[in-house]
Design goal:
Elements (H helix, E strand, L loop, with lengths): L11 E11 L4 E4 L3 H6 L4 H4 L4 E4 L10 E12 L2 H8 L4 H10 L5 H10 L5 H7 L3
Antiparallel strand pairs: 1-4, 2-3
Helix pairs in contact: 3-4, 5-6
């Protein structure tokens, strides 16, 4: 049997975090100051109209307000530009900036999507991600 040829090149780098999901049985809409939402990463116009939720706590969620978990994902595709930055010894911040420029969704951005969808709370996203 011939050995498989294994490629040693990296094509994607993935990071993930699990955050608690808001309980569907006791979920209720909450209000937050627009500036607080801008501070966590929402654009100003969206921060003024986004609906946010929190679990009140019930028998279904054992009075926690949460039931289950959902993943936040950050996937960086290894483009030629990023590969060159790595080989030239660029800092993590430079790599991150370039990846975002090329369309990478950060963990925080993924968290903001989950907030928009009403799946998790602001506290969960802020606790598990950085701007």
């Amino acid at each position: 049997i011939e050995p498989f040829l294994v490629s040693t090149s990296v094509n994607l780098i993935c990071a993930q975090r699990l955050v608690r999901k808001i309980c569907k049985e006791c979920r209720e809409e909450i209000q937050m100051p627009t500036q607080a939402l801008v501070d966590i990463g929402f654009p100003v116009d969206e921060a003024q109209r986004v609906k946010l939720y929190k679990g009140r706590g019930c028998a279904t969620c054992n009075n926690t307000g949460y039931r289950g978990r959902v993943g936040l994902f950050e996937v960086m595709e290894m483009s030629e530009d990023i590969r060159e930055l790595i080989l030239s010894g660029a800092s993590a911040m430079e790599l991150r900036r370039k990846a975002i420029e090329e369309g990478m969704i950060t963990l925080r951005m993924s968290g903001l999507h989950k907030l928009r969808d009403g799946q998790t709370s602001v506290e969960e996203v802020v606790r598990e991600t950085v701007l």
